[in-house]
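Review form for a predicted model. The reviewer records the input and the model, then writes brief findings.
Reviewer: anonymous (R2)
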Amino acid sequence: MIKLERSAEEERAKLAGLAGDEYDAQWRRWREASKEVQAAVTAHAEASGASRYELEQAVKKAVRHAHDDPPAR
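Model under review:
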């Protein structure tokens, strides 16, 4: 799920600076990636009995904090 969320975030970031048809096409790629994340979170929550909301927040937090951490040297 973390890999899917990272992919969705990368697609979202690509929206910056786009307009018109390019923006629309990229927006569709981002929405598709986001749908994959949502489906994976839902399936895992249902299978494990975990809170869907808490699981989604944990995935988002893991991805955000990975970007905040400085690279290891």
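Findings: The CA atoms of residues 43 and 49 lie 10 Å apart.
Further findings: The chain has one domain: 1-66.
Recommendation: see findings above.
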